[in-house]
Amino acid sequence: MNLRRVRYLLRLMETSSLAEVEVRDNGVDLRVTRSPRSAASLAQHQSPTICSLSQAEASGPDEHIVRSPRVGICYASPGPDQPPFVSIGGTVQRGDTLGIVSALSTVSPIKAHASGTMLRILVENGQPVEFDQPLFVIG
To answer: Which of 16-25, 36-45, 82-91 has the lowest mean pLDDT?
Structure first.
């Protein structure tokens, strides 16, 4: 088993609802288990109220697309029992935290780069996201 395969298994765990993966390869046994406070357990408990699927592109010159700073899982609130960072129709100031992206126990805030009104939220709570993927539209 090589490092590339281990990384693949970790990414698989991160982007799926799997709780455990066990692999046997050339005499090497590897078991990866998700901890109770992992990204998947947070996704199950967080409210999806602010996240709805919409078009991925801004339609006007006064609209600003906020993109994912990294690959990971996007969350709408800082914790399972906490309110969402933003909601559609809410006022957003430049520098406000709109959500977080979690990957391999590292959390990266998603910051607003413009002030305005939250027009669209383009991802669902707990959804895997790619680097530079459109997440929010501010107008």
So the answer is: 36-45
Nearest to 110 by CA among 127, 126, 98, 122: 98
Helices (H) and strands (E) in the chain, counts: 2, 10
CATH class of the region 43-138: mainly beta
The neighbouring-strand residues paired with 14 are none
How many whole angstroms separate alpha carbon 79 and alpha carbon 100? Answer: 10
Q: Do the beta carbons of residue 66 and residue 110 sit within 8 Å?
A: yes
Q: Where are the domains of the chain?
A: 3-34, 43-138
């680097």: which residue's tokens?
A: 131
User: Comparing C-alpha atoms, which of 48, 38, 69, 50 is closest to residue 134?
Assistant: 69
Place of tokens 């690959």: 71
Question: What is the phi-psi region of residue 126: left when phi exceeds 0, alpha when psi lies from -120 to 50, beta otherwise?
Answer: left
